[in-house]
């Protein structure tokens, strides 16, 4: 299978995926607002750059083993998928990745680009990314401008005995860690405080969370 074949090339297929995205996310919202349309009860945070590492792919494979999904979709929301990527490259920066892919295969997907356009690979040109399986039992919103990503899920859909799965993630009870992650993206302490306070209110820790 060619990596290029995994990317969405026609508008009909892209519109189908867009319908999924609109059911999961509020595309008119951005962090620190709650960007999820789906009624997730629990949220976890990680650094944006972590999704570019092998460990992230291994994490999604374990998560999909729990939810029974055979693939995940990664779709770049910003830059605009139609007005930018499809317009200039005739395909969408949206890809459906089989879960049996290795970490090396995953890196090849992130780095895929047409000749002469390396800077437009997902690994480089992706300000906001949506990541989710077709089951919609979990979803991730990743925002490079704030340096973080948010994972939403429900306890009744994720194995409660999978504490180790989230060892590298934090919740809003760890707001100091999240503050450290986002602090480099603001000019002053007031901006940081306003962002993290709003983030906390919108994604506050669920007492039933494992």
Question: What characteristics describe this protein?
Answer:
single chain; 210 residues; alpha+beta; six-stranded antiparallel sheet; 7 helices
How would you describe the overall organization of this protein?
With 210 residues, the protein is of the alpha+beta class. The protein has one domain (3-202). The protein contains 7 helices and 6 strands, in the order ααβαβαβαβββαα. The protein has helices spanning 3-6, 11-24, 54-67, 81-89, 103-110, 175-182, 189-202, and strands at residues 42-47, 71-78, 94-98, 128-132, 138-143, 148-153. The N and C termini lie far apart (39 Å).
* Strand content bin: 15-25%
Helix share, percent? 25-40%
Number of domains: 1
Query: What is the straight-line distance between the termini?
Result: 39 Å
Q: Tell me the series of helices and strands, N- to C-terminal.
A: HHEHEHEHEEEHH
Number of helical segments? 7
* Coarse morphology: globular
Low-confidence stretches: none
Question: Which structural class fits the helix and strand makeup?
Answer: alpha+beta
Could you tell me the mean pLDDT? 93
Give the strand order, joined by hyphens, for the main sheet.
Answer: 1-6-5-4-2-3
For the largest beta-sheet, the strand count, sense and barrel status come to: 6 strands, antiparallel
């Amino acid at each position: 299978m060619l990596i290029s074949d995994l990317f969405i090339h026609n508008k009909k297929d892209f519109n189908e995926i867009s319908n999924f995205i609109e059911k999961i996310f509020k595309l008119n919202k951005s962090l620190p607002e709650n960007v999820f349309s789906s009624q997730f009860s629990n949220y976890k945070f990680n650094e944006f750059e972590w999704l570019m590492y092998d460990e992230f792919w291994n994490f999604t494979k374990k998560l999909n083993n729990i939810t029974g999904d055979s693939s995940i979709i990664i779709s770049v929301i910003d830059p605009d998928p139609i007005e930018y990527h499809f317009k200039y490259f005739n395909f969408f920066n949206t890809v459906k990745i089989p879960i049996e892919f290795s970490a090396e295969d995953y890196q090849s997907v992130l780095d895929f680009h047409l000749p002469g356009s390396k800077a437009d690979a997902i690994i480089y040109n992706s300000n906001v990314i949506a990541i989710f399986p077709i089951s919609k039992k979990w979803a991730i919103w990743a925002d490079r401008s704030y340096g973080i990503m948010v994972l939403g899920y429900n306890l009744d859909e994720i194995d409660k005995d999978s504490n180790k799965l989230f060892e590298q993630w934090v919740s809003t009870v760890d707001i100091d860690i999240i503050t450290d992650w986002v602090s480099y993206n603001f000019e002053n302490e007031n901006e940081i405080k306003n962002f993290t306070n709003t983030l906390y209110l919108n994604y506050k820790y669920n007492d039933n969370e494992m």
